[in-house]
Write a structure and sequence with these properties.
The complex is a heterodimer. Chain A is α+β, with helices and mostly antiparallel strands. Chain A is built from 6 helices and 9 strands, in the order αβββααβαβαβββαβ. The termini of chain A are far apart. Chain B is 39% helix and 22% strand. In chain B, strands 14, 15, 16, 17, 18, 19, 20 and 21 form an 8-stranded mixed β-sheet that branches. A 5-stranded antiparallel β-sheet of chain B has the order 3-4-5-11-8, with helices on one face. A 5-stranded mixed β-sheet of chain B has the order 22-24-23-25-26, with helices on both faces. In chain B, strand 18 and strand 19 form a beta hairpin. In chain B, helix 8 packs antiparallel against helix 13. The relative contact order of chain B is 0.08. Classes of the chains: A alpha+beta, B alpha+beta. Chains A and B meet through helix 1 and strand 9 of A and strand 12, strand 13, helix 7, helix 8 and helix 9 of B.
Chain lengths: 202, 745
């Protein structure tokens, strides 16, 4: 009897043991991270507490990213940052893979595309990308001022690589930001991301 | 008619002709009339992909359907996507421009392949392949006319990097009448391509499939006949945002396939219905099926199917208890567990304990209220015991361990402890001592005397001693239990506990029955002494199991410990009638401690090592392993698999009766059957996983794999020599469950 009891107790402890790695789940706190930006500065999610944060997984070599950098992405970045939103572009491409950049390379990409993000973060190890479950470029996340994940998924509603589709599509990130700003709940909080695969190392 | 190679760019300013002949002008004229940016009547090679519009036949017939298709020829290592592209990518899209009356169906998607890069899973195609489309030719077109089919193709071609592409393809076909069509050969260039594409298009299967969410998982159950073998079977869902794209867990049940998958991270709401595609690869052959899956919010998908499996096995095992249970779901398993519990009362290790309890309860028949309360306390003990064991098992499984019922006997420590317990109970029955107060702190007297506590602990004890003796048909019921959500599983174990407790509870609640039992008296002492012997024999069996688990040396130490234990009990029994002094008490306590010492090394994880079979038997069978089984099957040899454990009585009985007979041994030789034996005496996750494939969580499990591949036949849990030999014959002649063969639509 004692043996059974102790086994049972041991088993209970094992099941109650907390999950080690937090995943990105809408409605839950967004996983914390710390990454170096394109200027060599360490940036954390924590430092932007109190502000709405947009995460954008990017890879300048990807045709889907190119589609949205024909103007749509830059416009969204400008309007969001003008509104006090922090916009973080994250590159999880491993060294040697398409779209991988170092700090200088990232700054060149920003300059040539006229991008207006708050910071361009380098995640060549893919650690943060995998933690968030980022699968495609672009893959978007919106985190509210309290640090809760409010949106994850595609940038918009039409899955294509054709810039001509952009005006016809619902821009999910802009919509989520507008809804958060007016204190409403996010009407589309999850969508299927589309694009190129994130070029993780092995 | 053939057009010659032509590239025409309207957006740019260049017009390049690489034509060798004069028909370019015709094409150019068509192009300009159509006002289309790019037209290709011949294969066009874009970056990493060549596309072309082709037809199965060289002409169209009014009022019929014609197969046309877009041929995609991928550069090595590049791929395009299926209708659900998976974690990234885009499906290839077609937009048709057809003459009046023509109707093009959607793409008849061939079976996709799974492409894995790191953690990302994509579904698509590589090599040379075809996206077939069925086109309705109206009856209004006249033979002699020419018809032009045009399609805008939009694709994404990826290796690791991706390149979107688009082209407008054109195909010009003559119209002929039916009579001429009879002589019209198919276009030989594309014959193989169409045949292959249409053969790998999933056939609509006549199956029933349901899905339900279970936490973060989605479970799909497919019921039906001619279900494919789960070897090399993959599953894909047409609709995105439903299932995670990583590989699914697919298990075969008797009449069903169970699929478990993570819910998609982008899951928003459940559809009423979705489409599932199953793809089986065997060598170069690809077979595919599609079935509608109905979403059931409330469903426990595995329930009815597993209950059927349970009922099947129960019937196959020729048990008399239940007969046909029909299609009841959890209820059937509960019923089986309940009867299993009742049967446990007759097991050699349980019966002595219970018979005495029964007599005690009968003794209190003059005080019905007391008897009833004791019956209930006993019931509580049984149920608590089983639920506690089940909770431990479920918790350990939840923590990721591959365990099944009987797991408790995989621990040498538990086996040794049970041996001590059996010896202790036996000595008590033999009258060496009175199992009494202040001993071990377990409770007051366990097998004798009255009191709710005593009754409760008797119930608990019954559960503990019964657990090794898994009744023949409890295996499937418990296997079912373990596939259930926690409450369903616990319910099955509760039913088992109630079954076990039933006889005693009935005795307590129906005093008339109690009065029919003989009055306690001197004969009871004699009966007890007789009943002690089964306990000793049970102990011998447990020690034998222990020896298989840990080898001879630790077992010898345990035997020494048991001798000390017996000495302690004898000593204790001698002094029991008197008021023992503290030095004597101290001595007894010390002796107990010494007797338990040999158990210490058993608690270490390194104890489970030395279980090896004798060399003589080794020639008859080989140790089972996934690779050995796969090798043998690949070579076309028929295989008999025996999953056993030293503590499994049913297994041992079968081996003695059916698997040691000369006929069986001769049959193995004449039919060249490989006999593989898996030993689950100690925990082995590979075997646990294999058992789970067949819906079992425990041994025995007997399988016969037919010669030259195919699904295995699952034999009943109770074997007869004739039954095994008949099964081996079927394996040799190849009459086991024919694998579904299908023709192209």
């Amino acid at each position: 009897v004692k043996f059974v009891t102790s086994l049972l107790a041991a088993a209970m402890t094992m099941t109650i043991a907390p999950a080690v790695m937090a995943k990105a789940v809408v409605g839950q706190p967004a996983p914390a991270f710390s990454l170096t930006d394109s200027n060599g500065k360490a940036r954390t999610l924590e430092e932007f507490k109190g502000k709405t944060v947009v995460l954008e997984w990017t890879n300048a070599g990807c045709p889907f990213v190119k589609k949205h950098y024909t103007g749509n992405m830059q416009a969204q970045q400008k309007s969001a940052t003008a509104d006090g939103v922090v916009w973080l572009s994250i590159n999880s491409g491993a060294a040697g893979k398409e779209g991988h950049v170092d700090g200088a390379g990232a700054n060149a990409v920003i300059k040539s595309s006229g991008a207006a993000q708050s910071a361009y973060l380098l995640d060549a190890s893919g650690e943060v990308g995998k933690q968030y479950g980022a699968k495609t470029t672009p893959h978007m996340y919106v985190i509210d001022a309290a640090g809760t994940l409010r949106y994850m998924g595609a940038i918009d509603s039409i899955q294509s690589a054709d810039p001509a589709d952009i005006p016809k599509a619902t821009q999910y990130v802009s919509q989520a930001l507008a809804e958060l700003k007016s204190g409403k709940s996010v009407s589309v909080s999850t969508s299927q991301p589309y694009g190129c695969s994130v070029k993780y190392g092995s | 008619m053939r057009f010659y190679f032509l590239i025409f760019r309207v957006l740019g300013t260049t017009v390049r002709f690489s034509a060798k002949s004069c028909r370019v002008a015709v094409a150019a004229a068509l192009l300009i009339c159509g006002g289309i940016s790019v037209l290709y009547a011949e294969p066009i090679t874009r970056e990493h992909l060549t596309v072309e519009l082709v037809a199965q036949h060289t002409a169209l017939v009014p009022g019929t359907r014609a197969w046309v298709g877009v041929r995609l020829d991928h550069e090595a290592h590049w791929h395009t996507y299926w209708t659900n592209p998976g974690d990234s990518g885009l499906p290839t899209k077609l937009a048709w421009r057809l003459p009046d009356g023509f109707i093009a169906d959607a793409i008849a998607w061939p079976a996709p392949a799974r492409m894995i890069v790191g953690d990302l899973h994509n579904f698509g195609f590589d090599g040379e392949m075809l996206l077939p489309v069925s086109v309705q030719v109206p009856s209004t077109v006249r033979p002699g006319e020419r018809v032009r089919l045009e399609v805008d193709v939009n694709w994404l071609v990826c290796k690791e990097e991706c390149i979107p592409g688009r082209a407008t393809l054109l195909l010009d076909l003559p119209v002929i009448d039916q009579a001429a069509a009879d002589h019209e050969a198919s276009d030989t260039r594309w014959q193989t391509l169409f045949a292959h594409a249409l053969a790998t298009e999933p056939v609509v299967a006549d199956w029933q499939a349901v899905a339900a969410a279970r936490g973060n998982e989605i479970e799909i159950r497919i019921d039906g006949t001619d279900l494919p073998d789960t070897d090399h079977l993959d599953a894909f869902v047409v609709q995105p945002q439903l299932l995670g794209n990583a590989s699914l867990r697919i298990a075969r049940r008797t009449d069903a396939i169970l699929i478990q998958a993570q819910r998609s991270e982008y899951f928003v709401r459940a559809p009423q219905q979705f489409d599932l595609v199953l793809v089986a690869h065997s060598g170069d052959t690809v077979n595919a099926w599609t079935t509608k899956v109905t979403w059931r919010e409330d469903a426990v998908p595995s329930a009815s199917n597993d209950a059927n499996a349970v009922a099947d096995s129960a019937q196959a095992a020729n048990t008399t208890a239940t007969g046909s249970i029909g299609s009841g779901s959890l209820g059937a398993a509960l019923l089986l567990a309940f009867f299993g519990g009742v049967l446990l009362n007759l097991m050699p290790c349980v019966f002595p304990v219970l018979s005495l309890k029964a007599l005690n309860i009968a003794d209190s028949a003059h005080a019905p209220a007391v008897a009833r309360r004791e019956g209930l306390a006993y019931l509580a003990g049984c149920v608590v015991g089983f639920v506690a064991l089940a909770s431990v098992l479920l918790a350990l499984r939840g923590a990721g361990q591959s365990l099944g019922w009987g797991f408790q006997l995989q621990s040498p420590l538990v086996v040794a402890a049970l041996a001590y317990l059996m010896i202790g109970l036996g000595l008590s029955l033999s009258g060496v001592y009175v199992f009494g107060a202040r001993l071990g702190g377990v409770g007051q007297s366990l097998t004798e005397g009255h009191g709710l506590r005593s009754a409760f602990f008797t119930g608990l004890l019954a559960c503990v001693v019964a657990s090794p003796c898994t009744a023949p048909f409890m295996g499937p019921a418990l296997g079912f239990a373990l596939t259930q959500p926690v409450f369903g599983a616990l319910a099955v174990f509760v039913a088992l506990g109630i079954g076990l407790a039933l006889p005693i509870v009935i005795l307590g609640w129906i005093p008339a029955l109690g009065r029919r039992l003989p009055k306690p008296g001197a004969w009871m002492e004699r009966l007890k002494q007789v009943l002690a012997w089964p306990m000793y024999l049970t102990a011998v069996w447990l020690l034998w199991v222990l020896m298989r688990q840990v080898g001879a040396d630790p077992t010898a130490l345990v035997l020494v410990g048991i001798v000390a234990f017996i000495a302690a009990l004898v000593w204790y029994g001698r002094w029991q009638p008197y008021d023992a002094q503290w030095p004597q008490r101290l001595a007894i306590a010390l002796l107990f401690l010494i007797s338990l010492a040999p158990m210490l090394p058993l608690a270490s994880p390194y104890a489970n090592s030395a279980a090896h079979a004798d060399a003589a038997e080794q020639t008859l069978w080989q140790p089972w392993s996934v690779t050995r089984l796969a090798e043998a099957r690949a070579s076309g040899q028929s295989v008999f698999v025996n999953m056993t454990a030293a503590w499994c009585i049913t297994c041992l009985a079968n081996e003695r009766v059916a698997l040691s007979s000369n006929d069986f041994i001769a049959k193995l030789g004449t039919d060249n059957v490989l006999y593989l034996k898996g030993d689950w005496t100690t925990q082995d996750s590979e075997i646990s996983a294999y058992l789970a494939e067949f819906g079992r969580s425990g041994v025995p499990l007997y399988l016969v794999y037919p010669r030259n591949g195919g699904a295995p036949e699952v034999l009943p849990q109770i074997l007869t020599p004739g039954l095994v030999i008949a099964a081996l014959s079927r394996a040799t002649t190849g009459s086991i469950t024919p694998v579904d063969s299908r023709s192209s639509p």
